[in-house]
Automatic annotation (TrEMBL):
Protein source organism: Lentzea guizhouensis
Domain PucR C-terminal helix-turn-helix, residue spans: 455-506
Protein name: Transcriptional regulator
UniProt similarity note: Belongs to the CdaR family.
Domain CdaR GGDEF-like: 284-407
Length: 508
C-alpha cells in the first residue's frame, strides 16, 4: 500500500538531484505544493488537477502553448517541457504556473518514475525506504557485532551478514518467530522496551547462557518523540568495539530517515540533495536549517573525504566508497544530529552545523579516517574546512576543504589536514596545476630538459645552490653535477629563472 505525500516544488527539485530540470519561470515561487505527477499529451484532453507536476510529452515550442495554459487554468504546480522558449515562459507567467525545462538527454519515463518516487512513501505494510541491509552491514562493521534493525512491532526489517555464531533469539527473530518467552519477559520487566521507546540511551543487556542468549546492546530509533524502531547488536565471537555504543547512537539517527512515514519528513536522499543544494548556492541557509533542525546563525564547518587510488575493479571501488559514506554518516550523526552527508564527484561531503567555538573536528575526522582504513582496507584522505561563523558561509568552508584535498591528492601523503597545516603546499600545488593546464605560460627550455638534467637541476635548486649537498642527494660526484648544470641553457644566477625552473620541475 502506498500513500502520496505533498511537498513543495523546491523540495521536489532538490530531491530529484542535479540537474535533471531547470526552472525557467516560477510566478508564485518554489513554495507551491506538488501533489501528483501527471502526463500531458497533445493528442489527449488535458487531465490536470491542482498541485500537479505536468510532464508535457510530444509537444515542443509553440505546440506546447495550449497545454501550458490548460495547466495554469487547472492550477497545476508546474509544467515540464523538453524545450523552453520566450513564448512558453510568457505563457507560463501569464497562466501563473511554474515552467521547468528538462535536459534533452533525460528520458520522460525516468523523470516520471523519479518524481513519483519522491512523492511516494511507504506505510507500515510496505517496503522500507533505502537500503537498510547495507546500513545494517555498516553498523556491524563499526560495532564489531551482529546487527538487526526492527520496527516498533519487533519485526526484523534488515540484518547484517555474519560468519559468527548467532544465538537463538537472533535466529528466531530473522525467521519471523518470537524469541524465548522467559527472555522477552525479563526484557519487559527490566523496562528495556520502555527505555528504547522513550530515549536515545544505549541499553546494555547481559548474556543469559541458560537461554542461549548472548550479550547485546540496543538503541531506539526516533523521529522527535515518535519511536520508529530499534537496532540490536549481538556480540559475536569477539567483544564489541570500544566505540560500539557511540557508533550505535549515530546509526540510530542515520536510520531514522529510512523509516519515517510522516508527511514532509526528509528521506536520506532528500537530505543528501539538501546538502548539495546548500553547497552550490541553490538553496539558502535558513531553509536548509529549518529542514534539519539547525541554527543558521551558529558556526559550521565542512569536511571532505576521498578514497585514495581508483585502481583495479571499478565496481569494487564504488562499493568501498559507498561503505565509506555509510561509515561517515554514522560518525557524523553521532557527533551532530543535524549533520548532513552527501556524495559528489567521487568525494563525500559532511556538513557539521551548530558547532561550539572549540569544536574538535580534527579528532573526529582522524577517528573516521582511522576507522575507514581499518575496515575498508584502503587509504582515505580528509580535508577539514575552517569553522565559519554561520551556515550562510558553508560554501567558504567547502571551497577551502576542496583546495586542501586537491593538494593532498596531488602531492601530500597526509591522511587529515587543514589549510593551516599545509598552506604552503596548497598554494604551490595550485600554481603547479595552473602550469600543468596552461603550457603557454611555461618556459619551453625547462619542458625540453631530459630526465637526468631535470632531476639534477631540481636537486640543485632544492639544495639552495649547494652543489655538494645536491650531489650527495643524487649519489654522484660534485664535478658530475657541475658538468650537468653547465649543459643547461638557463641563467641560474637569476632568482626569477630559478623560481620558475623549480616550479616547472616540481610539476614534472
Amino acid at each position: 500500500m502506498y500513500d502520496r505525500t505533498v511537498m513543495t516544488l523546491r523540495h521536489m527539485l532538490i530531491a530529484l538531484g542535479d540537474p535533471l530540470v531547470e526552472v525557467q519561470v516560477a510566478p508564485h515561487g518554489l513554495e507551491v505544493d506538488v501533489r501528483d505527477v501527471v502526463i500531458m499529451d497533445p493528442d489527449d484532453p488535458p487531465d490536470v488537477a491542482q498541485g500537479d507536476l505536468a510532464l508535457v510529452i510530444g509537444a515542443r515550442g509553440r505546440a506546447a502553448l495550449p497545454l501550458v495554459r490548460a495547466a495554469g487554468r487547472a492550477k497545476a504546480a508546474a509544467v515540464a517541457v523538453k524545450e523552453s522558449s520566450p513564448a512558453l515562459e510568457q505563457a507560463a507567467t501569464d497562466a501563473g504556473v511554474a515552467l521547468l525545462e528538462v535536459r534533452p538527454e533525460v528520458r520522460w519515463a525516468h523523470l516520471e518514475a523519479l518524481a513519483k518516487g519522491v512523492l511516494t512513501t511507504t506505510t507500515d505494510d510496505g517496503e522500507v525506504l533505502g537500503d537498510l541491509f547495507a546500513l545494517a552491514q555498516t553498523i556491524a562493521t563499526l560495532t564489531g557485532g551482529i546487527v538487526s534493525i526492527e520496527d516498533t512491532a519487533s519485526r526484523v526489517l534488515a540484518y547484517s551478514r555474519s560468519s559468527d555464531e548467532v544465538d537463538e533469539l537472533r535466529r528466531l527473530s530473522i525467521l519471523g518467530r518470537q524469541g524465548p518467552e522467559p527472555y522477552l519477559k525479563m526484557l519487559r520487566e527490566w523496562g528495556v522496551y520502555n527505555l528504547l521507546r522513550s530515549s536515545e540511551e544505549v541499553v546494555r543487556i547481559d548474556e543469559r547462557p541458560e537461554l542461549g542468549i548472548r550479550r547485546r546492546i540496543a538503541v531506539g530509533i526516533h523521529a522527535g518523540s515518535q519511536p520508529l524502531g530499534t537496532i540490536w547488536v549481538q556480540e559475536g565471537d569477539q567483544p564489541l568495539t570500544d566505540q560500539a555504543e557511540r557508533a550505535l547512537l549515530g546509526a540510530a539517527r542515520v536510520t531514522a530517515p529510512h523509516l519515517i512515514q510522516q508527511r514532509n519528513q526528509p528521506t536520506s536522499r532528500f537530505r543528501e540533495n539538501l546538502l548539495a543544494a546548500l553547497l552550490t548556492g541553490r538553496m539558502d541557509a535558513a531553509t536548509v536549517a529549518g529542514q534539519i533542525g539547525a541554527d543558521p546563525a551558529k558556526p559550521c564547518a565542512v569536511v571532505v573525504f576521498a578514497l585514495r587510488g581508483g585502481e583495479g575493479d571499478r565496481s569494487e571501488h564504488e562499493l568501498r566508497r559507498a561503505e565509506m559514506t555509510g561509515l561517515i554518516s554514522v560518525h557524523a550523526a553521532a557527533y551532530r544530529r543535524s549533520a548532513l552527508v552527501s556524495e559528489s564527484g567521487g568525494r563525500t561531503y559532511v556538513l557539521l552545523p551548530d558547532l561550539a567555538p572549540n569544536a574538535q573536528l580534527l579528532s573526529l575526522t582522524r577517528e573516521i579516517v582511522t576507522t575507514a582504513r581499518r575496515h575498508l582496507h584502503t587509504s582515505v584522505q580528509a580535508a577539514v574546512g575552517s569553522t565559519v561563523s554561520t551556515l550562510d558561509d558553508a560554501q567558504v568552508s567547502r571551497q577551502e576543504a576542496e583546495r586542501v584535498l586537491d593538494a593532498m591528492a596531488r602531492d601530500l601523503d597526509a591522511e587529515v589536514a587543514t589549510l593551516a597545516d599545509v598552506r604552503s603546499q596548497v598554494l604551490v600545488s595550485e600554481i603547479l596545476a595552473l602550469l600543468q593546464d596552461n603550457p603557454r605560460i611555461r618556459d619551453p627550455r625547462i619542458d625540453a630538459l631530459d630526465a637526468e638534467s631535470a632531476k639534477s637541476l631540481l636537486a640543485y635548486l632544492d639544495a639552495l645552490g649547494d652543489v655538494r649537498a645536491a650531489a650527495e642527494r643524487l649519489h654522484v660526484h660534485p664535478n658530475t653535477l657541475r658538468y650537468r648544470l653547465r649543459r643547461i641553457d638557463l641563467d641560474l644566477d637569476d632568482p626569477l629563472v630559478r623560481l620558475i625552473a623549480q616550479l616547472q620541475l616540481r610539476m614534472r
